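Q: Okay, next protein. This is Uracil phosphoribosyltransferase from Candidatus Onthenecus intestinigallinarum. I've checked the sequence twice, so it should be correct. Can you predict the 3D structure?
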Amino acid sequence: MSTLHVMDHPLIQHKVSLMRDRETGTKDFRELLEEISMLMAYEVTRDLPLKEVEIETPVCRAKTKVISGKKLAVVPILRAGLGMVDGIMNLVPAAKIGHIGLYRDPDTLEPVEYYCKLPADVEERDLIVVDPMLATGGSASAAISFIKRRGCKSIKLECLIAAPEGIERVQKDHPDVDIFVAAVDERLNDHGYIVPGLGDAGDRLFGTK
Ligand code: PRP
Ligand code: URA
């Protein structure tokens, strides 16, 4: 069974509350999403392997540790996942970026795929799939299935706000994928929106409504 990591650090909780507020405008919403994504990435990358190297400090030769060159890729689910990429790339600038385009059909709430471009060596990389909202879990589960079909075996999911239904769906479909979230909300409403949530993440991020 995958592990659910709820990142309840006070800074993250504070920033998520600001994002939830309907009065928060596009510029602040975008900046907050980037900041939270970076703070969360600190924990998502906690198990990156290290190797020992020998260096010369101004004082003496010393054995010390650096990241062992593990290959990473960040894969935003379009559109709203795009808002999480820069924050993560601040921490792991050598990571590659793949893109998966999915939207939820407003009537069926089923994910419809419209774009996919992943790094050529995706099967050798550790992937961090990112999307601010995990509602029914349909989009994230479909995106992960699609990536797995390309041969990728090591996947984590980083989301901002999750509904219990979405967590359950991803854990059932992908028991090998650990999930990192900043908040687990109460439930979904009749339109598949997370309650209390923050509304439509894509629209608030890009100012399209
Ligand atoms: C939102 C969100 C997720 C999806 C979550 O995207 O960014 O991708 O809904 O819902 P689910 O867990 O029920 O699948 P949306 O489909 O609104 O597309 P957008 O990012 O282009 O706005
Ligand atoms: N997608 C969003 O952007 N918000 C929700 O609450 C659910 C799905």
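A: Here is a summary of the prediction. The two ends are 38 Å apart (CA to CA). The chain has a mean pLDDT of 95.
Q: Noted. On to the next one.
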